[in-house]
Structure formats: C-alpha cells, structure tokens
C-alpha cells in the first residue's frame, strides 16, 4: 500500500492530507502518481505525511499503490 491507498483507506482526500501536513494537495497527488517519485521526498516531508496518515513505518509510503489512479473515488463532501 502506497500513499494513495493509505489515504483512501482513511477516507481522506489529497486536500485533507495537504491541510494536515502543510503540503500542497497537488504535491501529495504528484507523489501518488509518481510525477514526483516518493523515494525522492525529503525526510521531513515523509515524516509529515506519515504523521498525517498515522504511518510509523515510513517505508510504506514508498510502496506502490495497489489501487490504480481514479478507482474507488471518495464521495464528494456535502457543504
């Protein structure tokens, strides 16, 4: 399970993770899609994402996602 799978399993959006970490949600998406390889993120970034997703073993953030992009979309939040 990579970042996307962990995030989705907790019912969070990229924006949610961005708000929890102080990292732009688009950057989170870039790590999820591989546009920015997770192995190249700084230790500080990995710790912030790991804390937000309650992941102690930061190596899990480097694992490939099982779910392809676009699958199992979260329901839109009601205003």
From TrEMBL:
Gene3D superfamilies membership: lambda repressor-like DNA-binding domains
One Pfam short name: HTH_3
Residues spanning the membrane: none
GO molecular function term, any single one: DNA binding
Domain of life: Bacteria
Residues annotated as domain HTH cro/C1-type: 3-61
PROSITE patterns assigned to the protein according to its UniProt record, in alphabetical order: HTH_CROC1
Annotated InterPro entries: Cro/C1-type_HTH, Lambda_DNA-bd_dom_sf
Protein name: The helix-turn-helix motif
